[in-house]
Write a structure and sequence with these properties.
heterodimer; A: mainly alpha; MetI-like fold; two-stranded antiparallel sheet; 17 helices; 1% strand; B: mainly alpha; globular
C-alpha cells in the first residue's frame, strides 16, 4: 500500500503531467550527462571544491555535537568527579551498571516509564485518528480549516507554558477547584495529586498534540480515491459504513506503522513534561528514566551511575527502534516511504 | 512508494496555490444528506473541541488583566480590569530582561540555523558527483535515531567552556538533521536545468546558491525558519542545564521558576506601589511568553496545507530506513518517470 503525500487540494499540474518521480534521491539532471565520471576522485574533489565549502561546516557541526558526545559515555565506566574531569577520574569497570540493578529508584523509574508509555499507547495514540475521522466527516472546507487552525496551535507552545496554563485552570486556585468547592469538595488540586497524575499526563499530551497528530492521517485519507466512496454510496452504503469499510482500511498501514514505532519508543516519555511537574507530585509518581538521569546526575552529582542509566537506556531504546522498524518493514507497511 | 520524494515540492509557478482558492466545498452529488440529529451532534462536538482548546488560553489572557479579587472568586470571566500585573513585569526586572535575552537568542539562532542548514542542504544535493558527500549524508541521517544522552552532552558543553554562555543555547541545536533533509528535498525538486545552465555560463556554486536556489525556496525557508524560531523561543531544558547565572535566564526558565514552581517573585515588583496579586502576575508572564508564538502562528498556518508539512511529518517517522537506504545506495542513474 502506498500513501501519497498529496495536499488537501488537487495535485498541481506539473505533477500530473510529468508524473511523480519514483525513487529519486539523487539529483536528476545535475552533472551526470555533461560530466563524465572517469576522472579520479581527487580531480573531481578539486573541481567541486566549492561544494565542500557548503558541506564542511555542517558536517563539522554534526561530528562535534552528535558524535563526540558519544565518547563522553565513558563516564558510565568511571567514578567521575567534576573536579578531576573525564581524563583523570577513576575507572570502575561495570560497577555503575551493577549498582543500577540494586537501586530501588531505578526500578521505580522503569515501572513508571512503562506504565506511562502504556497509557499513552492506549489513550493518546488513537486520539488523533478519531479526530481526523471526525474532521473528515465535516463537509464545509472552511469550518474544517478553522478547527485545524485551533487544534494545531498547542503544538507550538512550550511544555513550560502548557503546564503553567493547566495549573491556572486545574490548580488549587483555578476555576475547576472553585467548582469542586461549590459542591462541597474542598482543596481539590488536580495538578499535585499523585494518584491522578498519570491520567493528567496523558490528558496533557492529548491536548497538546492531538491536532498535530491528525496531519499524517489526513494525508492518508486524502490519498483514498473518491471513486471508492462514490461507488459504495451508489451501492447503498451509508456514511458510517463508508467510514468503516473504506476510510479505516485505508488508514491501517499508517496506523500500524505508527503503532510499531510508538512501541519502539516505550522507554522515552515526555521528558520536559515530567521534569517540570515532578516537584509538584513527587518522585514516586513522576520519576521516569530520563528524569532519573537528570536528577541523580546533573542535580545530584552521581555522574557515573546516571550516565550508566542513560547509556543503558539509550542502547536499549535504539535497539527497540531498529527492531520496530524491521517489523514495520516485514509487515509490508513500508508504503509510507 | 516514493512519498518522501514529494516532500516540499516547490510550487514554482504558484498555479496550485491559486487554484486552491476555488476549492470545492460542500456535499458531492452522490453523498446523502446528513440527518439533523447527526448535524446537531457534530456542532456540539465542534463546540466542545474549540472550547477545550481555546478556553485555557482565553482564561489566562483575561485574568492577567483582572485584579486579585476576580481570580480567587471562581469567576469564569473576570469582572474587573487592571494592567497592574503588566506594569510590574515590564518595570525592568527579571521578566523584561529574560524576554530580551530570549528575543536575542531566537533572532541570532534562527538566522545562523537557517544559514548553516541551507548551506548543508545545498551541499548535499549533488551526492552523485561530489565525492564523500554521500558519506556525509549518511553521517547526518544516522544522528536522527540516537542521542548521546544528557550527561555526555553536558560534559561536552562544559569542556567547550560554554557553560553560562548564550552560545550554549544556540550551538547544540544549530542544525536539525530533519529540517536539513526537508530543505534538501525541496532544493532537489527545483528545475535543475536552471542550475545547470547557470553552471555552464560559469556561475560559481555560491552564486547559484545565493541568486537562484535561495530566492526560489522562500516557502520552505519560511517554514523551517518558523520551526527554528519556535524551537529557540521555547527552549527550556538546554537553558536549565547550561545556564546557572539567573541574569542570563531566558523566559522559559523564568516561567518555570516563578509560575510552574511558584517561587516568590519579590524582585518583580516596583517598590513604590502595592504589589499586584501573584496569580495575575503569573498569568501575565504566561501571556508575554505565548504572544510571540500566537503572532507568528497565522503566517505559518498558510504552509500547513502544502506538501511541505505533510511530507515533513512523514519524514520524521522514518529516520532509520533513510539512514540505511542511503548507506546501501550506489550511484544509480535517476529513475525519473519518463514524461509522456
Amino acid at each position: 500500500m502506498s500513501i501519497e503525500a498529496r495536499d488537501t487540494e488537487a495535485p498541481s499540474l506539473e505533477q500530473a503531467v510529468a508524473g511523480v518521480p519514483e525513487e529519486s534521491p539523487t539529483n536528476p539532471g545535475a552533472g551526470g550527462a555533461s560530466r563524465p565520471r572517469t576522472r579520479s576522485r581527487w580531480q573531481r574533489m578539486k573541481r567541486e571544491w566549492q561544494m565542500y565549502v557548503f558541506i564542511v561546516p555542517g558536517v563539522a557541526f554534526f561530528l562535534l555535537f552528535a558524535y563526540v558526545p558519544l565518547a563522553g559515555n565513558v563516564v558510565a565506566f568511571q567514578d567521575y568527579s567534576a573536579f578531576r574531569g573525564v581524563f583523570d577520574s577513576q575507572w570502575v569497570g561495570l560497577q555503575n551498571f551493577a549498582n543500577l540493578f540494586t537501586d530501588d529508584e531505578v526500578l521505580r523509574a522503569v515501572v513508571n516509564t512503562l506504565v506511562i508509555s502504556f497509557l499513552q499507547i492506549v489513550f493518546a495514540f488513537p486520539a488523533p485518528i478519531i479526530l481526523a475521522l471526525f474532521l473528515n466527516s465535516l463537509l464545509g472546507e472552511r469550518i474544517k480549516r478553522i478547527i485545524q487552525t485551533v487544534v494545531y496551535l498547542p503544538h507550538f507552545i512550550s511544555w513550560v507554558i502548557v503546564i503553567a496554563i493547566w495549573q491556572k485552570i486545574l490548580g488549587g486556585a483555578g476555576p475547576i477547584a472553585q467548582l469542586f468547592d461549590m459542591i462541597g469538595v474542598e482543596g481539590v488540586n488536580l495538578m499535585t495529586n499523585p494518584e491522578t497524575f498519570k491520567i493528567l499526563l496523558v490528558s496533557q499530551v492529548i491536548w497538546k498534540d492531538v491536532g498535530w497528530g491528525t496531519i499524517i492521517f489526513f494525508a492518508a485519507i486524502s490519498s483514498i480515491p473518491t471513486e471508492l466512496y462514490e461507488s459504495a454510496a451508489t451501492d447503498g452504503a451509508g456514511s458510517w459504513r463508508r467510514m468503516w469499510h473504506i476510510t479505516l482500511p485505508g488508514l491501517v498501514p499508517v496506523i500500524s506503522l505508527l503503532l510499531i514505532l510508538t512501541v519502539g519508543n516505550v522507554l522515552t516519555v515526555g521528558f520536559e513534561q515530567l521534569l517540570l511537574q515532578q516537584p509538584a507530585v513527587g518522585a514516586n509518581a513522576a520519576q521516569v528514566l530520563d528524569t532519573f538521569v537528570y536528577f541523580r546526575g546533573i542535580a545530584g552529582g552521581d555522574w557515573g551511575l546516571s550516565a550508566a542509566a542513560g547509556l543503558l537506556k539509550g542502547v536499549i531504546a535504539t535497539i527497540l527502534v531498529i527492531f520496530a522498524n524491521r517489523i514495520a518493514k516485514r509487515l509490508g507497511t513500508g508504503g509510507i516511504y | 512508494m516514493a512519498v518522501i520524494d514529494q516532500i516540499a515540492r516547490p510550487d514554482v509557478t504558484g498555479r496550485a496555490a491559486r487554484r486552491s482558492r476555488g476549492a470545492p466545498s460542500g456535499r458531492p452529488p452522490w453523498m446523502d444528506r446528513p440527518s439533523p440529529t447527526m448535524q446537531a451532534l457534530k456542532v456540539v462536538v465542534i463546540a466542545v473541541i474549540v472550547l477545550v482548546m481555546l478556553y485555557p488560553f482565553l482564561y489566562v489572557i483575561m485574568f492577567s488583566f483582572a485584579d486579585g479579587r476576580s481570580v480567587t472568586s471562581g469567576q469564569l470571566f473576570p469582572t474587573s480590569f487592571s494592567t497592574a500585573a503588566y506594569e510590574s513585569i515590564f518595570a525592568g526586572g527579571v521578566v523584561t530582561r529574560s524576554l530580551m535575552v530570549t528575543a536575542g537568542i531566537t533572532i541570532v539562532g534562527t538566522l545562523l540555523s537557517l544559514l548553516f542548514t541551507s548551506m548543508l542542504a545545498y551541499g548535499l544535493t549533488r551526492t552523485r558527483d561530489v565525492p564523500f558527500s554521500k558519506g556525509a549524508m549518511v553521517l547526518v541521517l544516522c544522528t536522527m535515531f540516537f542521542g548521546a544522552g544528557i550527561i555526555p552532552n553536558y560534559l561536552l558543553i562544559k569542556e567547550l567552556g560554554l557553560l553560562d554562555s548564550y552560545w550554549a543555547l544556540i550551538l547544540p541545536g544549530l542544525i536539525s538533521a530533519f529540517n536539513m533533509i526537508v530543505m534538501r528535498n525541496f532544493f532537489m525538486e527545483l528545475p535543475q536545468e536552471l542550475l545547470e545552465s547557470a553552471r555552464i555560463d560559469g556561475a560559481s556554486e555560491f552564486r547559484i546558491f545565493g541568486s537562484i536556489v535561495l530566492p526560489l525556496s522562500k516557502a520552505v525557508l519560511a517554514v523551517i525558519a518558523l520551526f527554528y524560531a519556535v524551537g529557540y523561543w521555547n527552549s527550556f531544558f538546554n537553558a536549565l542545564l547550561y545556564i546557572n547565572d539567573t541574569t542570563k535566564w531566558p523566559i522559559q526558565l523564568v516561567l518555570n521558576q516563578y509560575v510552574v514552581q511558584g517561587n516568590a517573585m519579590s524582585d518583580l515588583q516596583a517598590p513604590d506601589r502595592p504589589a499586584p496579586p501573584a496569580q495575575t502576575v503569573q498569568m501575565a508572564i504566561v501571556v508575554v511568553a505565548t504572544v510571540p508564538i500566537l503572532i507568528v502562528y497565522p503566517f505559518a498556518q498558510r504552509f500547513f496545507t502544502k506538501g511541505v508539512l505533510t511530507g515533513a511529518i512523514k519524514l520524521s517517522l522514518i529516520p532509520i530506513r533513510r539512514c540505511r537506504r542511503y548507506s546501501s545506495q550506489n550511484a544509480e542513474p535517476p529513475t525519473k518517470a519518463p514524461a509522456p
